[in-house]
Amino acid sequence: MIDLHTHSTASDGSDTPAQLLENAVKLGLTAVALTDHDTVSGLDEFLKAGENLPIKSVPGVELSTKGENRELHIVGLFIDHETPSLLAFLERMRESRKKRNEEMLTRLNVIGYALTWEELENEAGGESIGRPHFAQALIRKGYFKTPGDVFEQCLKRGKRAYVPRELPAPAEAIKAIHEAGGLAIWAHPVSHNSGGSGRSHVRRCLKHLLPEGLDAIESYYSQFTPAQHEMVLELAEEYSLLSSGGSDYHGKNIPTLALGTGTGTLAVPDELFFSLEERWKKRYEDAMK
Fold first, then answer.
1. Is 0.90 surpassed by the pTM of this model?
2. pLDDT digit string (tens) for 256-272?
3. Please, how many CA atoms are within 13 Å of residue 173, restricted to the half-sphere of its CB?
4. How many separate helices (H) and strands (E) can be counted in the chain?
5. Residue 227 in contact with residue 195, Cβ under 8 Å?
């Protein structure tokens, strides 16, 4: 099996990049990708740790965008994480995230939760602070017992401290990934609680994403229902897209999702990795001609 969607302490996961790789090797995974949110700061450690391990370590990133009036996530795989245009794009993303975080922190303070920016930075450890870090910091201070409690009362969409993000269009993310030599994958195209299969939503989005050069779609995902999994596989074939898949592993920060197996039944076949790798190599070779 493989896992091409994971997170480390560089964003909102609890494993360091090296620990993530060690755990993947223990599970016998063929390949694992590190796809932290809006940052590539963990990739140097990740790639160095993978040099002498019996596993394919894939450099990646997960970019948040807005399309069809909702948030769409684009994963980049096989990226050159030192590409200047990608780094500039990520810097803009982090500035937007910081602005949002500052406003959420202010709202939390106003409604009575004594939390500081320094405490958030200490909780995050890396350069990318997200809502899970807010949740852990509030739990650590004794305000809540579980992350679910924090989200339900404060941080979930529509709750008192929630602030929407200003996000780029999917086309900008796909362009940044391609400029970094990577493949662009639409991550978790449907939600497990969206109702029905979500086929019409996926079709509408693909009409916009395909002309921008989308390479693949995440057909295997921890929280898909069986019907959603089959639907995305069917649409991948219909639109001649490659398939990818992963657990969306965050370690202890989302304990219900295990590396490799997600909620326990995920099994992403090796063949997906080899097909993606072949596409990436061909694109790289064509670019060198």
1. no
2. 999 999 999 999 999 99
3. 30
4. 10, 7
5. no
Handedness of CA 188, 274, 216, 186 (dihedral sign): positive
Q: What is the largest CA-CA distance in the chain?
A: 61
**What is the CATH code of the structural domain delimited by 91-155?**
1.10.150.650
Backbone angles phi, psi at 192, to 5 degrees: -65, -20
Tens of pLDDT, residues 75-112:
999 999 999 999 999 999 888 888 999 999 999 999 99
Side by side, the strands of the sheet bearing 183-187 are 2-3, 31-34, 56-67, 70-77, 183-187, 216-221, 242-246
Nearest residue to 232 via CA among 274, 263, 203: 203
Ordered by start, the domain boundaries in the chain are 2-83+167-288, 91-155
Q: Walk along the chain (289 residues) in steps of 10 and give the mean pLDDT of each run.
A: 96 93 97 96 96 96 88 96 97 90 96 94 79 92 93 93 92 97 96 65 94 97 93 97 97 92 96 97 78
Architecture of domain 2-83+167-288: Alpha-Beta Barrel (3.20)
Count of Cβ atoms closer than 10 Å to residue 179 Cβ: 15
Alpha-carbon distance 34 to 56, whole Å?
Answer: 11
The secondary element (H helix, E strand) that includes residue 109 is: helix 84-110
Decide if 11 contacts 130 (C-beta within 8 A).
Answer: yes
User: Among 234, 241, 233, 238, which Cα is nearest to 269's?
Assistant: 233
In whole angstroms, give the CA distance from residue 249 to residue 255.
9
Residue recorded with tokens 């807010």: 134
Neighbour-count burial of 77, counting CB atoms closer than 10 A to its CB (0-12 exposed, 13-18 middle, 19+ buried): buried
